[in-house]
Hints:
The protein has helices at 22-33, 45-55, 72-86, 110-138, 159-178, 197-202, 214-224, and strands spanning 13-17, 37-42, 62-66, 91-94, 141-146, 184-191, 236-239. The relative contact order is 0.14. The chain is an alpha/beta fold. The mean pLDDT is 94.
Amino acid sequence: MDNSMSDRFSNHVVLVAGGTGALGRAVSAAFLAEGATLIATYRATGEFDELARQAGASRERLEGRRVDVTDPSATQTLVEEIITRHAHIDVLVNAAGGYTGGAPTWKVDPADLERMLSLNLRSGHALARAVVPVMLTQNRGCIVNVIAKAALDHPARASAYAASKAAALAMMGSLAAELVGSAVRANSVLPSIFDTAANRGAMPKADFSRWPKPEDIARVILFLCSEDARVIRGAAIPVYGDS
C-alpha cells in the first residue's frame, strides 16, 4: 500500500460497504493511504485478512465487520457500533453489489431478480436509512454509491442486473435531492467493466488495457468525498476508461 499520499482524510471515519471486494479493496486502501480510519464490511474472512495484510503501517486504522449490508437491522447495528466507538461517520461508500446475466428477460429466474435487487438496491437503502440520520445530526457527511454503466446502458441478457442498477441510480438521485440545503452530499459513480481477475477470466479475448483499473475508480470516489468536491451533489460520474 502506498503511504506517500496526502493526509486529506485524517480524522475522518470512513465506512466502505463491500470494502474487501475487487473494487472495495482499492477504495479501502486509498482512504487508508490518505489517513482515514476505515471500517470495511465483508462477507469472506479471507478477503479481509488480505486487506489487513496489504494495509501495512495503516493496519491500526483499519477495522473489519462481517455484516450483511442488505439486512436493515444488521446495518443499523453496525452504524450504532461505529458511533459508539468513534462518535461520527464522515464518509459512506457503498461498494457492495453483484452481477448475474446470460438469460433473456423472459427466462430470468425470479430468485435471480430478487438477488440483484437485494445486492444492488436494498443494500444502498439499508445503509442510507442507518447513516443519513447520523450525518444530518453531526451536520456533515458524504455518500458515494457505486452503481454501474448498466444503469444507463441496458445490455441484453442482463435485465435483472440492469434494472437493479437503474433503480439504485434513481434512489440515489432522490436522496441527493432530499439532502439539498444540508451539509450532507450524495453522489454515484458508474463504472463500466473494470480490470479484475474475474473479468479477465470471463472475457479472455478482451483488450484489458482499455478497462479502468480499480485504483482509477477509487481516485474518483476519493475526489467526490473530498472538500474539493463540496459543490457536487446528485452527480452520476461515468468511469468507463476506453471501454
